[in-house]
UniProtKB/TrEMBL annotation, chains A, B:
It comes from Amycolatopsis viridis. NCBIfam families: fum_ac_acetase (TIGR01266). Keywords: Calcium, Hydrolase, Magnesium, Metal-binding, Phenylalanine catabolism, Tyrosine catabolism. GO terms for molecular function: fumarylacetoacetase activity. Residues 105-384 form the Fumarylacetoacetase-like C-terminal domain. InterPro entries: Fumarylacetoacetase, Fumarylacetoacetase-like_C, Fumarylacetoacetase_C_sf, Fumarylacetoacetase_N, Fumarylacetoacetase_N_sf. This is fumarylacetoacetase. It comes from the Bacteria.
Length: 393, 393
């Protein structure tokens, strides 16, 4: 038996207990929980086969009461001794995509981001669309290209047309960008015709992950009217390997900023679900931005209520993300198109002026939040840009 | 043993052989093929467990050579005698969703439809966006709400704002509509970073289904800027239960209309993949439109090449649909918003002037195409409108 050491100030203490899917060389991926710098194999430690699977989906589908029970049992377990065979150092395991993604929806919930993008994509027009303060604008993304942190990102090719060009050309994206976001994972869904209310949020959403919604701005700008972004986004979306349980985020709850005009009844909340999560974005190891999630206009409970208000079902494994997190200050912007104002105002990265991503660049997004006993960590979502391939073109 | 009778002029002769998932009372759903007015249980008839599953996915994932082989074996089988236990009358089986939908993309490939919608949604502006003739515009829809023909459609609620109203109101959609489309099912996908060419289309796409992309125009018109349609579409998309193999559509192949300006090289085709599929739309039993698929500007091979050109992977079960099929003539329009010109020009249905869908209305979309030996049928996609529910609001 082993006693798990939790280092002083660890972001992965008993107040966090994020779930992931891990494997060691020669073994099958299975569910683990991170404690300090260790990963505990839950199938072994709790003797339950629901954790002996390569995704969290079966466990998530067991529902809220079960999530509470397992969290409590893990706490008891870790306070005592854990079987040796259940404990691995986090550095010796490989982390996999933690859940099978059902549908993926990306929102647009930061007023600063939506205003900045409006100014950049539609110069001279009102930056916020008339609907923006009435509903959380969102759209479906490609679930099949959600990848786990550490997956290399191949620079996408596609059609691009600059405003001063007569016709589009085909080639690699010259304006490859990131979007730092927080994603929410549906644990138990709802059938067709049974909308979820804002109050249903904590019983249906299992947890949260960090999201980097890689974006090819030149492809996006040319394609996105009138049906929205498609190939400018669908090549890859990276998520962090650890799913922080919503149960770990009680101490992070804050009100959203004031919503004026007042929202329609189905979007009102009786309890606040804004979240005080502090993000940091690093570009080749240098921190360039600190987006504040607490400034997001729409809460994740409002997003869930909106997404199902038309009767759409939700499923275990549905992922919905906040959209880029940007604060009011320049160094709080969660996308490089905003941070460099469309490439016109380079930022200095390791001594070099930089705008969009170059081949070989690596971006790492991390986040922390207040927990029940000290801050808790979301881990990281990281990706490196590989050159475009010329296959089949 | 039984000899399967194929009635003279049947749309389901040996040149068709569409696959579906069926069950009889008290038995589990499994894969069958339609022959005349019979359904043949393929697990029993061919003695292969890949067909003893509740979806076509495992069979589709076996790939093109296997699709050819099984089609040939079914032909041989049906020309001889089939075990009694493998044969059911089509009227005695229940048909299920034929495959698990991975990602769902909806295109916008009819020039007539895109022009009509442009005039209706953006009066006074150029109807076609500048990108429209350069790329097949498309967006992701909600995979989790794809339902099989016959599923009732509950009228969705949501935010609507008429141009003359100051603020949106919440309530049931007053402009509920259909979109008659043809959908394509990916049999074998491609990994991240390996785009499919137009020539790859017949080896990767397994077959085609009829699609009714139910659309709440009032919800859509208010929400869709700038990120595209979301709740105006995500409440339900109906598909036909029979997947017509692409192998059955050789005789239906036609060139697309001339594409001018010339498209970029990755969208060019060495062989035509336009399809001469004739649709019919019935509203409460009365035919109101005959959309001609052969007039679609973009081919499904071009859609597939476009969808993956940025390196996006494709998966077994991906569904992509053409967008509304509309011809040049008024009675060839595949959506009621076009057929009634935004509700200003009612059509007469069973003696009554009608615009958008009322509760209790039923819409049935059918289609046929030339086959190797006589016309082949796609079956139908049918749905009835139920009143909005007031649950949880």
């Amino acid at each position: 038996m082993t006693t798990i050491d939790i280092p002083e100030g660890s972001l992965y203490g008993l107040g966090n207990l994020p779930y992931g899917v891990f494997a060691t060389p020669g073994t099958a991926p299975r569910v683990g929980v991170r404690v300090g710098d260790s990963v505990v194999d839950l199938a072994v430690a709790l003797g339950d086969d629901v954790f002996a699977r390569p995704s969290l989906n079966a466990f998530m589908a067991q529902g809220y009461d079960r999530w509470v029970e397992v969290r409590s049992r893990i706490g008891d377990l870790v306070r005592g001794d854990v079987p040796d065979a259940a404990v691995f150092a986090v550095g010796e395991v490989e982390l996999h995509l933690p859940f099978e993604v059902a549908d993926y929806v990306d929102f647009y919930a930061s007023e600063h981001h939506a205003s900045n993008l409006g100014r950049l994509f539609r110069p001279g027009a009102e930056p916020l669309m008339p609907n923006w303060k009435h509903l959380p604008v969102g759209y479906h993304g490609r679930a099949g290209t959600v990848v786990v942190s550490g997956t290399d990102i191949v620079r996408p090719c596609g059609q691009r047309k600059a405003p001063d060009e007569d016709a589009p050309t085909f080639g690699e994206s010259r304006r490859l960008d990131i979007e730092a976001e927080l994603g929410f994972v549906v644990g138990t869904g709802t059938p067709l015709g049974s909308p979820l209310s804002t109050a249903d949020f904590p019983r249906h959403v299992f947890g949260a992950v960090l999201v980097n919604d890689w974006s090819a701005r030149d492809i996006q700008a040319w394609e996105y009217v009138p049906l929205g972004p498609h190939l400018g986004k669908s090549f890859a979306t990276s998520i962090s390997p650890w799913v922080v349980p919503l149960l770990a985020l009680e101490a992070a709850r804050v009100p959203t900023p004031p919503q004026e005009p007042q929202v329609l009844p189905y979007l009102r909340e009786s309890e606040p679900w804004g979240l005080d999560v502090e993000f940091a974005v690093s570009w080749n190891g240098q921190e360039v931005s600190r987006p504040p999630y607490r400034e997001m206009y729409w809460s994740p409970a409002q997003m869930l209520a909106h997404m199902t208000v038309n009767g759409a079902s939700a499923r275990t494994g549905d992922l919905y993300a906040s959209g880029t997190i940007s604060g009011a200050a320049k160094d709080q912007r969660g996308a490089f198109i905003e941070l460099t104002w469309g490439g016109q105002e380079p930022v200095t990265v390791n001594g070099e002026p930089r705008t969009f991503l170059l081949d070989g660049d690596e971006v790492t997004i991390t986040a922390t939040a207040p927990g029940a006993a000290g801050r808790i960590g979301f881990g990281e979502v990281r990706g490196r840009i590989l050159p475009a391939t010329e296959a089949k073109r």
